[in-house]
Amino acid sequence: MQRRIALVDVNNFYVSCERVFRPDLEGKPIVVLSNNDGCVVARSAEVKALGVPMGLPWFQMKELAREHRILAFSSNYTLYGDLSSRVMAVLGQFAPDQEVYSIDESFLDFTRQPHLDLTATGQTIRQRVKQWVGVPVSVGIGSTKTLAKLANHVAKKRADWNGVCDLDTLPGSDIDALLASIEVREVWGVGRKTAMKLAEQGIRSVADLRAANPHRLRERYSVVMERTVRELQGESCIDLEEDAPPRQQIIASRSFGAPVWTEAELAESLRAYMGRAAEKLRRQHGVAGRVGVWLETNRHRLQDAQYHPSATLPLPAPSDDTAVLTKAAMTVLHHLYRDGYRYVKAGVMLLELGERNVEQGQLFADAPSATDPLRTALMATLDRVNARWGKGTLGIGSAGLRQPRRWAMKRGTMTPAYTTNWDDLAIVRA
Questions:
Q1: Over 90: is that where the pLDDT of 247 sits?
Q2: Which residues does the UniProt record annotate as the domain UmuC (predicted)?
Q3: What does the alpha-carbon distance between residue 13 and residue 200 come to, in Å, rounded to a whole number?
Q4: In the predicted model, is pLDDT for residue 367 greater than 60?
Q5: CA angle, 46 as apex, 147 and 67 as ends, to 5°?
Q6: Which of 53, 80, 83, 226 is least enclosed by beta carbons within 10 angstroms?
Q7: Are 154 and 162 in contact (CB under 8 A)?
Q8: Over the chain, what HEC string results?
Q9: What's the rounded mean pLDDT across residues 232-251?
Q10: Does residue 313 fall inside a structural domain?
């Protein structure tokens, strides 16, 4: 049976989220900036039309921004994450099988609904997500995940498709012409460097890649490339992942809003980062057997003394307890810290991850065990309070309560948390 896969992708996701509660921003040039308001990570269609590339440092485009009245917003990850979960919940109502691929993309499998008109369903999806969440989406449909991803590219870039492209409705000659008009670098998993190598072999368009011999490309590249070609040829090789695989490691890090010199401030930041990492660990019902820490000075300031240390520490027993993980991180930090350096970034890592229910007990371990019912209840309460009242509401006391923290990220133009904070709810006046 031929599969029927749809990829639904939110258009310019971060920008679209900013516009949900600011309808006055519709049609205006907007960019969203990275951590510490450093560089452009999202652009509205109006900004793309001006030729602004992704990753451009904000300070380099301030003159252009003044000239064209480009509005810049700090990344509001709380808002984006909440709206993403709402979009995915809406999409899950349309198909029996769903894979949440990223914060703004989801695969839907309609194979078990062979008589469904997917073009009409795609339009219904677009209308419902726009009405219920407020963001625009594009829908691509094909017989494999790779073709669905390619169809989504067509739906998004070519207005005549009205936001929905179902490749299976096209005659073979039309598909050939369409794929011949798309550069090979637009194929899922084909990066810029790979596209350059393929061009040396005369493979420049998607049609060229589809016509290639998958066995020969496997010999020159990898099994992944062979799989991509087979998918373009209509052979389904990539299954939907309805349950995301557990992370093999968890990392939490940030660049500081201002350089940090003291061990005390580094410790405060790492405790805060560990709180977030431990919450992610518990969310996937895991435990960590090793904790890592790293510090960074500014590699681009050659006048500064450079120091980029990292180290890990095994735990006496695998744990998901924030206090246990934080204590280990502080031990590593004390070992790494050197006075006199201008630190600009730090991070924590949770390694040697395993499932919580298969933890092997340690007879003489003095740290709280992941199976200690009181500690388990405490961590569950911690997570519930933070989920209900916002991240950072409750945490380890040593993480500090001083606000604002000097090392915290710069977010000079961040919008309110419209959907997750009672104080930031939008006010509607009749």
A1: no
A2: 5-191
A3: 35
A4: no
A5: 150
A6: 53
A7: no
A8: CCCCEEEEEECCHHHHHHHHCCHHHCCCCEEEECHHHCEEEEECHHHHCCCCCCCCEHHHHHHHHHHHCCEEEECCHHHHHHHHHHHHHHHCCCCCEEEEEECCEEEEECCCCCCCCHHHHHHHHHHHHHHHCCCCEEEEEECCHHHHHHHHHHHHHCHHHCCEEEHHHCCHHHHHHHHHCCEHHHCCCCCHHHHHHHHHCCCCEHHHHHHCCHHHHHHHCCHHHHHHHHHHCCCCCCCCCCCCCCCCCEEEEEEEEEEECCHHHHHHHHHHHHHHHHHHHHHCCEEEEEEEEEEEECCCCCCCCCCCCEEEEEEEEEECCHHHHHHHHHHHHHHHCCCCCCEEEEEEEEEEEEEHHHCCCCCCCCCCCCCCHHHHHHHHHHHHHHHHHCCCCCCCHHHCCCCCCCCCCCCCCCCCCCCCCHHHCCCCCC
A9: 80
A10: yes
> φ and ψ at 350, to 5 degrees?
-110, 125
Q: What is the pLDDT of residue 124?
A: 97
Is there a single domain that holds both residue 92 and residue 52?
Answer: no
Q: What is the mean pLDDT of the chain?
A: 87
Candidate from 20-34, 149-163, 230-244, 380-394 with smallest mean pLDDT: 380-394
User: Do residues 57 and 34 make contact, with C-beta atoms less than 8 angstroms apart?
Assistant: no
The verdict on 228 and 315 lying in the same domain is no
Q: What are phi and psi of 155, to 5 degrees?
A: -60, -35
Enter the pTM of the model.
0.71
345 residue type, one letter: K
One domain, residues 147 and 29: no
> Is residue 7 over pLDDT 50?
yes
The pLDDT, as a whole number, for residue 10 is 96
Domains identified in the chain, total number: 3
Q: Which domain holds residue 281?
A: 250-356+367-389
